Amino acid sequence: MINPLLHDLGVGKGVLAAAHMSVGLLLSLAGIGVGGWLLTKSLARALWFGWGVQAVALFGFAALAWHAANPWAAAGAWGMECFASSVTGMALVQVMSTRVIPGAVGASYAFLTCVYGLFGRMAGGGSGVAVAVISHTMPLHQAYALFFAATAAMGVPVAVVLFRYGGPSARQWSGWPDSYGDRAQEQHS
User: Fold this and answer.
1) Cα–Cα distance for residue pair 116/104, rounded to 1 Å
2) pLDDT for res 169
3) Phi, psi angle pair for 155, to nearest 5°
4) pTM
5) Residue-level pLDDT at 27
6) Cα–Cα distance between 18 and 25 in angstroms, integer?
7) Which of 12, 23, 177, 188 could pair with 79 in a Cys bridge, judged by C-beta atoms 3.0 to 4.6 Å apart?
8) Of 66, 53, 77, which Cα lies nearest the Cα of 3?
9) Dihedral sign, CA of 152, 156, 157, 160?
């Protein structure tokens, strides 16, 4: 829904391409670095941080939809999305890597990749319908803002699961015992 939002706000293809190739690329690489560094600490840290920056990115698009098109704001929101997607992508690969069957690593990883891709495609198709339905009751820019804010709010159950099963306790910030960072710290101790 990001590209349709930007198109409907009047952000030109040239501005979008420039954002993809400059801010998007740089912040994607930064997100990979930060995600990798966080994974050396714990999977939970990477997931918490990824959840937070993804929410900021989605609320950034909500604000962009509400306050009309500004090329710099569009580039900033896009850059935050690229950064957040890279951090959460690193965490996703770590989670999937720990869930494979030892004798069938390739098949397991392929299956997990297809399953997460399937859900993304199903949600992606429904998102356009959701904005179209919402836009019957309010202006299109408000429908986009509501959609992106609601999408960010959908991360709250993720935060609850993270807090319950792999999040910070009152005394420490802990990761799941099978995360790479925890094994690496045990080996160095």
Assistant:
1) 18
2) 43
3) -75, -10
4) 0.75
5) 94
6) 10
7) 23
8) 77
9) positive
Q: What is the pLDDT of residues 115-129, one digit of tens each?
A: 877 877 777 777 888
In the three-class reduction of DSSP (H, G, I as helix; E, B as strand; rest coil), residue 70 is classed as coil
Neighbours of 157 (CB within 10 A): 9
Q: Choose between 57 and 177: higher pLDDT.
A: 57
Rounded to a whole number of angstroms, the distance between the first and last alpha carbons of the chain is 46
Residue 87 in tokens:
């951090």
Distance CA 99, CA 97 (A): 5
If one counts the domains in the chain, the total is 1
The size of the chain, in residues, is: 189
Q: Do residues 42 and 181 lie in contact, with contact meaning Cβ atoms separated by under 8 Å? A: yes
Spatial distance between the Cα atoms of 30 and 12, rounded to a whole number of angstroms: 26
> Which CATH number characterizes residue 146's domain?
1.20.1250.20
**Where in the sequence is the domain holding 23, given as residue range(s)?**
2-188
What type of residue is 122?
M
